[in-house]
């Protein structure tokens, strides 16, 4: 129930120009989205029973349409951070304080590409500061900035550089460790490689000295975000899952001191590679759900019969996979998966290419 069309025209089909997050104190939801030719993101609130009135976020975000939008919620508060990547290669961030948007800042005016989401955002779970990591033009070093609890932006600097300095960074993913200030960062590059590193915020704040290369020129393409990261909620162990340029998904674990070797998380029935990877952590256990799309023809831009598969990690091993759709489309991430916060149920949303576009 309570279905609502937020806009009839985002102007985009292959980029995620929307996101949703919940205020952690009130339980209200904020949905932010782009309207075609309007550079200011729009938003609605949801109080659990009714939608609010559409309004504009902070106007101080440059002149380009927001093409990628990411939200993150501050633990135990109503604060939400929004990061946008626009058509002018800018990355902006702004803060929702529970009643209004403000404190907008331009993090960079020079991301490398428009086709990839070149940023991500997560909150430290103890210090409750927001970490934004982003990439810049022709660069192999991730950049970062921090939003402090005292309502100010702190210019962070650079994370650790990847080993292959001739490759430019593309996709960025972050995950925050429960009960800790540790944050896991994964980045893909133009090779395409996959590197992971960790942020430790304690007596000494630092990134890993040297990123760990978990996939060396084996991701299928830079066109898709064929990897993701998550933490087990109970143990606090980290996980990275990625496509190994075939029908399988590989994974490795971070136990707090070292990475395990790569192993197979899932072997799908599709003929060609895993394209998109999503992970969702059960808030009450070490269970993690993995969802992927596999394209079944060699050229995914013309594929109408791609598979969506789901697999479950129980804290020690994988089960499955279970095929949940054979009419998907891998030109963009046409699915989402998440846990119900108050029950062990998992919700999956699927976009069927044929039903929507033919």
Explain briefly what this protein structure is:
The chain has 358 residues and is mostly beta strands. The chain has 1 helix and 27 strands. It is globular, with a radius of gyration of 19 Å.
Explain what the structure shows:
This protein has 358 residues and is mostly beta strands. The chain contains 1 helix and 27 strands. Strands 13, 14, 15, 16 and 17 form a 5-stranded antiparallel β-sheet that branches. Strand 10 and strand 11 form a beta hairpin. It is globular. The C terminus is likely disordered.
Topology:
Blueprint lengths: L17 E5 L6 E7 L2 E9 L8 E2 L9 E8 L6 E7 L4 E6 L4 E8 L10 E5 L6 E5 L8 E5 L5 E6 L10 E8 L6 E7 L4 E7 L5 E2 L4 E4 L11 E5 L6 E6 L4 E7 L8 E5 L6 E8 L6 E7 L11 E8 L4 E11 L6 E5 L6 E5 L2 H5 L1
Antiparallel strand pairs: 1-2, 2-3, 3-4, 5-6, 6-7, 7-8, 9-10, 10-11, 11-12, 13-14, 14-15, 15-16, 15-17, 18-19, 19-20, 20-21, 22-23, 23-24, 24-25, 26-27
Quick tags:
mainly beta, globular, five-stranded antiparallel beta sheet, 358 residues, four-stranded antiparallel beta sheet
* Topology order in helix (H) and strand (E) letters: EEEEEEEEEEEEEEEEEEEEEEEEEEEH
Helix content: under 10%
Count of helix runs: 1
Uncertain residue ranges: 353-358
> What do the pLDDT scores average to?
89
Q: How many strands in all? A: 27
- Shape, per Cα inertia axes: globular
The amount of beta strand, in percent, is over 45%
Amino- and carboxy-terminal Cα gap = 26 Å
Instruction: Determine Rg (CA atoms, Å).
Output: 19 Å
- Structural class comes to mainly beta
- Describe the main β-sheet briefly: 5 strands, antiparallel
